[in-house]
Amino acid sequence: MKPEFRPDPVLKDVILIKPARIGDARGWFSETYNARLYAQAGIPDDFVQDNESRSETIGTLRGLHFQLPPHAQAKLVRCTHGRILDVVVDIRQGSPTFGRHTSVELSAKNGQQLYVPAGFAHGFCTMEPDCEISYKVTAYYYAPEFDRGLAFDDPGLGIEWPFPAQDMVLSDRDRRHPRLSELGDVFPLATAGAAR
Q1: pLDDT per residue over 50-66, tens digit each?
Q2: Is 65 labeled as catalytic in the residue annotation?
């Protein structure tokens, strides 16, 4: 059985993926990545590294993060334990959807994945305790000098997080990211496309 690929209705380059699950009395089996099928669906990226994170407290927010070229990363994100609200913001200068966002619930139960191209800021908030997130990326390593962020609570973005800002658990760094209007021209549309 093949996975289902659904481009986001707002951010067409962001794709929601539902891998097929084959179940029986023992449980289920799922093929969570197949380069050929993903390329046929418009995800030709060469994923070179797998990352995992764990957030123990409900209401933990990580984001909104991105890396600048030449270390820009596309991501393929899934939640392997618990449940998260995953959020993506288009930060490609000149894009018709610049500054717009989408959000989707990813959980171990629904098994869905989200493809986030380079040129988008990404973050998530845990909706249950003990969440584990696994994601593939297209660029090796974390590059601190190219690492950037976008304010999760920028009123201009209008993101509806599941908890009030003051109740969420964030790093000090994630509380200090600039708003979109202060970000500057970090991802010209041509550069973001080339990074993909």
Answers
A1: 999 999 999 999 999 99
A2: yes
